[in-house]
Amino acid sequence: MKIAGIMAPTTWIVTPDKFLGARQVQELRSTMAAGAEAGDRYAIRNAAIVETLLATGLRVSELCSLVLADLFLDSGSAHVLVRRGKGGKSRLIAISVGLAAYLSQFLKWKVLVGEAVDAGSPVFMSERRGKMHRSAVHRVWKSALRHASLPARHGVHATRHSYAVEIYRKTKDLRLTQRQLGHSSPVVTQVYASLLDDDVRRGVEALWAV
């Protein structure tokens, strides 16, 4: 809310139970990769869905809307285009070389199994060969948690929080984190900086040592 042109502080808080820790993320990735190695069609697709969510911070609706023309996978300039994010805003997300290579292999697999790979085709297809719906992605996520023996309390939005926590932890760049997540205001992104404030952590530890 704005009062006299000033952005009021957000009351939204990301508590530790709303995102996955680094070990949990690794366990989830390992479990999904192991399932995909078996060659099951949907296990491969589901692993790619979870990996993309964890490595981009996309909202579920944004993931469902991705088409092949939105992927720019050349090494050195790899990006994912979000055409209609929250509020109808578009943004370009920089992605790692590793994710770009992973998605390139996923696209080759799509060709092998006969999925459409023209520019307007969904990146992640439903069982009916159409665009996936958010409810289907939620089911994929809950199944992934179950197979990785992780707490079922985590909603799929935890992937976005987990991404935000890690990118801020590694870069300490609030503007970059804001841009990657597509937040309209740095006030929203600030919650991740507050959560990982090293000065606060050092102060708490110093108090305990007294």
Q: What does this protein look like?
A:
With 210 residues, this protein is mainly alpha-helical. Helices cover 53% and strands 7% of the residues. It has 9 helices and 5 strands, in the order E-E-H-H-H-E-E-E-H-H-H-H-H-H. The strands form 2 sheets. The protein has a 3-stranded antiparallel beta sheet. A two-stranded antiparallel sheet has the order 1-2. Mean pLDDT is 84; it is low at 1-10.
Question: Biggest sheet, strands in spatial order?
Answer: 3-4-5
Low-confidence stretches: 1-10
- Please report the number of helical segments: 9
What is the overall shape? globular
Oligomer: single chain
> How many strands appear in the DSSP assignment?
5
- Amount of helix: 40-55%
Largest sheet: 3 strands, antiparallel
Percent of residues in beta strands?
A: 5-15%
**Overall pLDDT score:** 84
The gyration radius over C-alpha positions equals 18 Å
Distance between the termini: 42 Å
| H/E element order | EEHHHEEEHHHHHH
Summarize the structure.
The protein is mainly α and 210 residues long. It has helices at residues 22-37, 41-56, 60-65, 97-112, 134-147, 158-171, 174-181, 186-195, 198-209; strands spanning 2-3, 6-7, 71-72, 79-82, 91-94.
Secondary structure layout:
Elements: E1 2-3, E2 6-7, H1 22-37, H2 41-56, H3 60-65, E3 71-72, E4 79-82, E5 91-94, H4 97-112, H5 134-147, H6 158-171, H7 174-181, H8 186-195, H9 198-209
Antiparallel strand pairs: 1-2, 3-4, 4-5
Helix pairs in contact: 1-2, 2-4, 2-6, 6-7, 6-8, 7-8
